[in-house]
Design a protein that fits this description.
This protein is mainly beta and 331 residues long. It is built from 3 helices and 26 strands. Strand 22 (283-288) and strand 23 form a beta hairpin.
């Protein structure tokens, strides 16, 4: 008997599955047991004593929102919506466009799969280069004009074995770095890990493997730290975010501050702090330097790929299970 992938039940199954992945694979990762930071995790994740971020408001009307990105030129937030099975090429995905000063007025059909000329299945992480909005979509990276929503490019990573493309960051020379978490969901929401943990690099529309291996621990979020000239990766199944310097020497990637694990999004605030979201305890954390992690926001069920609005000092948190985005002002 076919069991429909019903939205009412899908999110909870995915949450259980992804948390199970973290529990099952953390012990297999070489980052879990031998990291000095891991030994001090309890003391490194204390709550912030003062200056907690304040809720600005919600963005409602989403369908399994996975990632949020601020376009400072247009002053809008793009929200990717899976709207179905995150591994299925069902053409149901869409990207909403939300004015930063009008959170209650999202344009839900800015880019929608199934519209003439548009293929979009299960969009996740996004990045902007020039006028192109790049979107991770299962095993391809799709480019759309960020002003009109018109499709302009598609880079197929299936020939390189891509399984679950998750997030995108822009590095030097407009190189795109794309994480592959290596997982797959079936029609009932059950998850497996048939792929390889990888970070792809796309330079001049040509993809290649930049990083791979168990130390990546199901790589999820990614961002480029221009001040440190390094790529920061948030692993879903490891206890520490990672820093990788292209061409750098060992240890590379380097393990950073330990935290609760089950990390999803990672981004940089205007003051240089790194913020990461964690499904493990429904929180967003900030890293001060590379060794200390402090909880900023809690009570966020399934916080996915967070974004930041550096102009206003905001953290943008998609709530995967609640079909909304919440916006916080950082004090």
């Amino acid at each position: 008997m076919h069991v429909p992938f019903a939205p009412a039940h899908r999110a909870s199954r995915l949450a259980l599955a992804t948390l199970a992945l973290a529990a099952c694979t953390a012990g297999d990762s070489d980052a879990a047991s031998d990291s000095p930071a891991a030994a001090g995790a309890d003391s490194a994740t204390a709550d912030s004593a003062a200056g907690a971020p304040a809720l600005v408001g919600p963005i409602d009307g989403m369908r399994t929102p996975e990632s949020v990105l601020h376009d400072p030129d247009q002053d809008v937030y793009f929200v990717s919506n899976v709207a179905g099975n995150p591994s299925e090429k069902d053409g149901n995905g869409f990207i909403a466009r939300v004015p930063a000063e009008q959170l209650g007025s999202p344009q839900l059909d800015f880019i929608r799969g199934g519209r003439t000329g548009i293929t979009l299945n299960a969009p996740k992480g996004m990045a902007i280069v020039g006028d192109t909005l790049w979107v991770a979509d299962i095993d391809a990276v799709r480019g759309f004009n960020r002003k009109s929503g018109r499709p302009v490019a598609m880079i197929d990573l299936a020939p390189l074995g891509a399984t679950f493309l998750n997030d995108i960051a822009v590095g030097p020379g407009d190189t795109l770095y794309v994480t592959d978490t290596g997982i797959r969901f079936d029609a009932t929401g059950s998850m497996s890990h048939p792929g390889t943990d990888r970070v792809f690099a796309i330079a001049g529309r040509t993809p290649s493997v930049a990083l791979e291996g168990t130390i990546l621990s199901a790589p999820n979020g990614v961002t480029w730290d221009s001040a440190g000239t390094r790529l920061l990766v948030a692993p879903f199944s490891g206890p520490t975010p990672l820093a990788w310097t292209p061409g750098g020497r060992a240890p590379n990637p380097k393990r950073l501050a330990a935290g609760p694990g089950s990390f999803d999004g990672i981004a940089l605030l205007a003051d240089g702090r790194v913020v990461v979201s964690s499904w493990a305890d429904s929180s967003v954390y900030a890293m001060q330097g590379d060794s200390t992690m402090t909880r900023l926001i809690t009570g966020l069920e399934a916080p996915a790929d967070i974004g930041v609005d550096r102009q206003r000092g905001r953290i943008l948190v998609p709530l995967f299970n609640q079909n909304r985005v919440v916006v916080y002002a950082v004090r």
